[in-house]
Amino acid sequence: MLRRPLHGLVRAVTLALLAVLVVQHHAIVEAEAATGWPANMRTQLVAPAIVYLPRERKAYVFGGRILTPLTHYTDVAIIDLAHNITGADADSSAISTAPFSLPIADSSLVPLAVTRDKALNDVYDVWLLGGMATGGPLRAFAVNDLLRAKEVTSVGLTASDASGQSLGGLIVGHPGRSGATTPFAPGASNQLGTDPAVYAFGNWSTVNNTLWRFDKSAAVRAVAAGTTLPPPRGFSCMVRYDSLRVVLTGGNNGNNTRLKDLWTYNLVANTWSQYSSPLLVARDDCQLAVYQLPDKSASYLLIMGYTSNPALEYVNLDSGDAPRAAVLSTADTQGPESVSAHAMFVHDSHLFLVGGVPTALLNIIKIAPQNDGTLAFAWVKTYVPSAAAGTNTTAAGNGTTTDRAATDGTGISAGAVVGISIGTVAGMGLLGIDDST
Ligand SMILES: *[C@@H]1O[C@H](CO)[C@@H](O)[C@H](O)[C@H]1NC(C)=O
Ligand SMILES: *[C@@H]1O[C@H](CO)[C@@H](O)[C@H](O)[C@H]1NC(C)=O
Ligand SMILES: *[C@@H]1O[C@H](CO)[C@@H](O)[C@H](O)[C@H]1NC(C)=O
Ligand SMILES: *[C@@H]1O[C@H](CO)[C@@H](O)[C@H](O)[C@H]1NC(C)=O
Ligand SMILES: *[C@@H]1O[C@H](CO)[C@@H](O)[C@H](O)[C@H]1NC(C)=O
Ligand SMILES: *[C@@H]1O[C@H](CO)[C@@H](O)[C@H](O)[C@H]1NC(C)=O
């Protein structure tokens, strides 16, 4: 008779104890981790790849290169978006070195992240498509359970053309790619295949207009996307605009002409269509991100790279409007004139520009929607998390880089709750407590 209540008490005490242990463990890990940007990234951070986790308010920064002399590196950094972050502070305590690095130095990686399971919704598996900036054949890396990972491994890559013929030693140089992604929802199936996928377009220096699809079996294949295709190019930029569309723009046509045509690839129809207006200016080595209004009533494509005139332009693709030049306020701080070859993502109504040329570590732009449908932008010296940021976040859904607000309504993210229960289950096993009695 006494067993049950006692058992309950033992369990409650064990839980409390474990909670303390978990907290202490985290404190120790944080104290030990070197803070600030890794040494190579401080030298120059060109073409990193980012996995942005809106729920955990973290961004993992994978690899990069130094331009002179050309050097790729294996560094991985973590940006903790729950803290104040001063962009220009290389020693910022919000930045740490990850407990793992790439097995091979690389940059311009194409990241893919997938939430493993509905019940364990903070378990993210990551695949990185590489070899596109180093002149060699494509290769792939994988990270199992990103938040708890101790290593990045090399995994075998398979490549095929649109008819399924295997392509050994496939070389794709500097394609259009998004440097940043968010995790796909668990079990999300994807058009043109059963797994979620990310896309890259074109080639350098033999320019091409093949759309490449990379999925979590580390398979790359050419997509046969109809007869209307964007013209061949290298160094363009792409982003997942929403669950239906991938956007492509910019790049160099191989004859030293930069491009400004804007295209959307529809994942369901498997067709490309050209947007009614081009960019205001031609760009290459550009990057794209998506900003969604807080009330989710509209999304805007943000385009940056190559030129300072304007440094940033934006367009709501559903409006049919032409892109607009962003006016960037310098009241708080003077940002760089332009940034190229960076990676960027939107978090908490701020655009985070990671790396790039001219040499930059982190630059931050605050975005403020105006009543007339335009957006106002301002460089900020220090990002200060808003009160609402991070409470109430939902699982990421479709690989877009928009951060998202709202739904579980508990004030503590489901990820944190699950994290505690995983720790508990593992701890129970270690302590030899048999929960079945
Ligand atoms: C973050 O910055 C804000 C605004 O400057 C300040 O009020 C707050 O104390 C800072 N938080 C930390 C932890 O430094
Ligand atoms: C891309 O360009 C490189 C360099 O010219 C070439 O070796 C490679 O075969 C090209 N790849 C494709 C898919 O066209
Ligand atoms: C692009 O590369 C693919 C794969 O090598 C090839 O089949 C295709 O003909 C190329 N396209 C152009 C426009 O060169
Ligand atoms: C590039 O220039 C060559 C030689 O003038 C020409 O044959 C080719 O069509 C041009 N390609 C593009 C994409 O303009
Ligand atoms: C993408 O996913 C987010 C979050 O799940 C959702 O709010 C948004 O509507 C999705 N976009 C589309 C076009 O389905
Ligand atoms: C959290 O979500 C609930 C339910 O959707 C909403 O009412 C509340 O305003 C949200 N809180 C914040 C801080 O966004």
From TrEMBL:
- Xref: InterPro entries: Kelch-typ_b-propeller
Output this protein's name.
Answer: Galactose oxidase
Spell out where the chain crosses the membrane.
none
Q: Please, which domain of life does this record's source organism belong to?
A: Eukaryota
The positions making up the signal sequence are 1-31
Give the organism, scientific name: Allomyces macrogynus (strain ATCC 38327) (Allomyces javanicus var. macrogynus)
Q: Which PANTHER family match?
A: KELCH REPEAT DOMAIN (PTHR23244)
SUPFAM superfamilies in the record:
Kelch motif (SSF117281)
* Entry keyword set: Signal
